[in-house]
Amino acid sequence: MRRLSCLLPVLLVASARLLSGQQVAVVEVTPAHATVTAGDTIRFRVTAKDSSGQVVAGAQTVWIAPSFDIAGADSTGLVTTTRAGQTYVFALVGGTPGFAVLDVTERGSARLEIPRPKAAPIS
Fold it and tell me: What does the pLDDT look like over 57-82, one tens digit per residue?
């Protein structure tokens, strides 16, 4: 299953390149590296540029977080995390990929209680 999830972005890039024009040359995903706590969400943004560095507006973006057991991305770049680990967040714009690294840390204890020691009986 892990190998399949690693191949998914490659297959999507290959198929998108066949179906789209080559106007997008560079895809920048921001933040490029982020750290969040398991259970939190983070929104990624994308900027697509052509070969002369001009921003390409209106190109369709597909978001993917391939380690589905760690996080999942929706169609707007909002990534929801489920457990600790590291994954990549890919944005495919006009068949051209860009990516960011996402580190997901463990959620700390919500509350820590230390019981008071019982007093010794007085005799």
Answer: 888 999 999 999 999 999 999 999 99
Q: CA 102 to CA 9: how far, in whole Å? A: 16
Q: Is 97 helix (H, G, I), strand (E, B) or coil?
A: strand
Q: CB within 8 A of 81, min separation 6: which ones?
A: 36, 37, 38, 39, 40, 41, 42, 70, 71, 102, 104
- CA distances in angstroms from 10 to 56, 70, 73, 89, 113, listed in the order given: 22, 19, 17, 13, 48
pLDDT in tens, 100-109: 999 999 988 7
CA distances from 15 to 38, 44, 76, 84 (A): 32, 23, 21, 31
**pTM (predicted TM-score):** 0.72
Rg of the chain over Cα atoms, rounded to whole angstroms, equals 21
Tokens of 7: 């191949």
Rounded distance between C-alpha atoms, residue 94 and residue 89, angstroms: 16
